[in-house]
Design a protein that fits this description.
The structure holds two protein chains of two kinds. Chain A is of the alpha+beta class. Helix content of chain A is 20%, strand content 25%. The radius of gyration of chain A is 22 Å and the shape is globular. In chain B, strands 2-3-4-6-5 form a five-stranded mixed beta barrel. Classes of the chains: A alpha+beta, B mainly beta.
Chain lengths: 264, 147
């Protein structure tokens, strides 16, 4: 009997190992899009801006963008915020949580920063690295979201390859502490973000996004970012948020510019 | 800015206002924390000696000592984007030689304080380093009105 149990266990374990190996081989054999390289915002094609609104990337029409389907509270919340950058920035009194609290930007806000992004594909996940933080995300391949994920800064991401040329990332489980962009667009824990990364030529990466948050917007809406290949090297300097360094910067260059200048 | 002009004219402190036409429409200008604190429509020219170059987060800072008409040294501080971004534009932590003469062009504080956002700097050896690649003035810089 004991021998039978041992044999059965061995067969089961072997079966599991084969299945796992097959999954890995399938993953390795699948056409994986080449996203290698260091990707920076393509300023020439509007890849760098203040807002996720495609109609108002510069943020001049904050709260009244034609392509953002606000719920009333979300519009009021947006207009109540004081951005740290942009045409109507109020840096000295900003409510930008990244500036005030040194908090992570989250996604998609991180794509409003002038930093580079790098993709590290493996058989079980794609790791997305960023020069600010330095932060990283894990996009689990061939996986599922937890039934009830803890709300967190970067949410829970799963992904797959589509058409052999696109990495599709599906993220839920966000907390509601980040802004969607520099303009203070809010979101709730109901946010469901879909990202599609596609390398359209050797030096060009495009990102299409669907922002689906029924807690803040009446319907899903789209955004887009452009990236270009950079050859200057990844993470040559660590973009770290330090309260001490922020305070030094504010005292040196911003505080004197607030209010009435002291006599020279 | 009027205060800047009133206080600035001298042999050694030459401030010229250059109308940087087009800056208002530059998305990159708006990427900075400038809209409510600094006058992003024109640059101020500062000739002096580099007193400090801070290379670090959240923004680099360049301090320049400028001697006014009475011989008093006035220090101006201007900031750039962070090292990560400036590396992309060819800057390093050794780009600005402390102690050397230089000319800085800055978007100065609206309230007349000696602070601003760096547009570009011309070093003693003639090397010009751009902080923003904001559009250049459509016309040559105009000297400040004589007093």
């Amino acid at each position: 009997m004991r021998r039978l149990l041992k044999g059965t266990l061995a067969v089961v374990l072997l079966g599991l190992a084969v299945a796992a190996g097959s999954r890995a081989l399938r993953a390795q054999g699948a056409k994986v899009p080449d996203l290698s390289g260091d990707w920076t915002a393509d300023r020439a094609r509007g890849g760098f801006g203040q807002s996720l609104s495609i109609a108002d990337m510069g943020g001049r029409n904050r709260g009244n963008e034609p392509d953002i389907p606000y719920l009333p509270w979300a519009r009021e919340k947006t207009l109540s915020e004081k951005p740290s950058t942009g045409p109507n920035s109020q840096f000295d009194v900003t409510t930008d949580p990244q500036v005030v609290y040194c908090e992570p930007p989250g996604v998609p806000h991180i794509y409003l920063w002038p930093i580079k992004t790098k993709f590290i594909p493996t058989t079980e996940a794609v790791y997305i690295l960023y020069e600010i933080g330095p932060f990283f995300r894990v996009v689990w391949l061939n996986s599922k979201h937890p039934d009830d994920p803890d709300p967190q800064w970067w949410g829970h991401s799963i992904g797959h390859y589509d058409n052999g040329d696109t990495l599709v990332v599906d993220t839920i489980g966000f907390n509601d502490k980040t802004w969607l962009d520099q303009m203070g667009h809010p979101h709730t824990e109901k946010l469901h973000l879909t990202e599609r990364y596609k390398r359209v030529d050797q030096k060009t990466l495009e990102l299409d996004m669907v922002i689906d948050d029924p807690g803040a917007y009446t319907k899903p809406w789209n955004s887009h970012r452009n990236f270009t290949l950079s050859d200057t090297g990844f993470l040559r300097y660590q973009q770290i948020c330090s309260v001490r360094e922020n305070q030094q910067f504010f005292n040196n260059t911003a505080k004197p510019a607030v209010g009435t200048a002291s006599p020279k | 800015m009027l205060n800047v002009l009133r206080n600035a004219t001298s042999r050694t402190l030459v401030i010229m206002v250059a109308m940087a036409v087009g800056c208002l429409t530059s998305a990159r200008v708006f990427a900075h924390h400038g809209a409510n604190l600094y006058d992003m429509t024109k640059t101020v020219e500062l000739k002096g000696t580099i007193a400090k170059f801070y290379w670090g987060n959240p923004h680099n800072e360049v301090a320049i000592d400028v001697t006014d008409a009475k011989g008093a040294v006035v220090q101006w501080i201007a900031y750039t984007e962070p090292p990560l971004v400036m590396l992309e534009r060819g800057w390093t932590r050794k780009s600005i030689p402390v102690g050397e003469k230089a000319t800085m062009y800055i978007f100065a504080a609206k309230n007349g304080s000696n602070v601003g956002t760096l547009n570009r700097i011309v070093l003693q050896n003639g090397t010009e380093l751009t902080a923003y690649d904001a559009p250049r003035p459509a016309t040559a810089p105009t000297p400040a009105p004589a007093k």
